[in-house]
Amino acid sequence: MVYKIGFIGTGKMASAIIKGIVDKGFCAKDEIIASNPRESSRKRAEAELGITVVTSNAEVVSSAEVVVLSVKPQQIPGVFSSEKLEFGPSHTLVSIAAGVTIETLKNYVPDSKIIRVMPNICSTNFVGTACFSYSENCSENDVNTVRSIFESIGICIEVKEKDIDAVTGISGSSPAFMFMILDAMADAGVLLGLPKDLSLKFAAQTMMGSAITLMESGKHPGELKDMVCSPGGSTIEGVKVLEEYGVRSAFISAIQACAEKNKELGRKG
């Protein structure tokens, strides 16, 4: 049987993509095939997603021309060495492995079209951010197909491949930083006498509202910050403390470190 799209791996990101493309009508459940070597994972994916899940990666490749490589970077050599995967010129390999370059993937599938995508964890709730780049043999239709896949779980923006690691630091890794901020804000609420669950709700809604306000206003974040800060008020006092602790510098350094680590992962791929 021929399937519209195949997945090597059925982890959280693959599951999110599958749910998104089915929900948005990109394809039906019976047009999707996936592989996973673990029986428990296959059963979970079949029950949760309602798709065909097989043991063999080679079966996925032989059954679908668009194949999403949804494994960790360090697992890629094993995927291609464990069994013969017959990728050809008609195949489009879509990789979501952090740090793994198109050039590295060409070593495994020299004749195929390659699109490298970096989504983030927010995709599991269909509010994700993804960036992508592609090999020179990809057609406009190939690019639009992959854009449609990832727009089903959020936004998807084309960038130059040299910029993917930087974007990964900003949108791929930074949700962890946002969760740290939210936890700290909630702890501050507890310190001030609020219950943790209520404090966390206030913090999360405020973060979400601030992001929406920024995107919809078109204003610079510094301008919005100034709108909240009254002369001699409480907010500017808090801003002063954050500046004293070097919060801006810490975020810049953290994102830079993430980008460098992604490059390192790519060199090991």
Oligomer: single chain
- Mean pLDDT figure: 94
Q: What is the name of the CATH superfamily of the largest domain?
A: NAD(P)-binding Rossmann-like Domain
* Sheet with most strands: 8 strands, mixed
Runs with pLDDT <50, length 5+? none
Compose a concise summary of this entry.
This protein is an alpha/beta fold and 269 residues long.
Could you characterize what this model shows?
With 269 residues, this protein is an alpha/beta fold. It has helices spanning 12-23, 39-49, 57-63, 76-82, 102-106, 140-151, 164-172, 174-191, 196-217, 221-228, 234-244, 247-268; strands spanning 5-8, 32-35, 52-54, 66-69, 92-95, 113-118, 128-134, 154-158. β2, α2 (39-49) and β3 form a beta-alpha-beta unit. α7 crosses α12. It is elongated, with a radius of gyration of 21 Å. The model has no long low-confidence stretch (mean pLDDT 94).
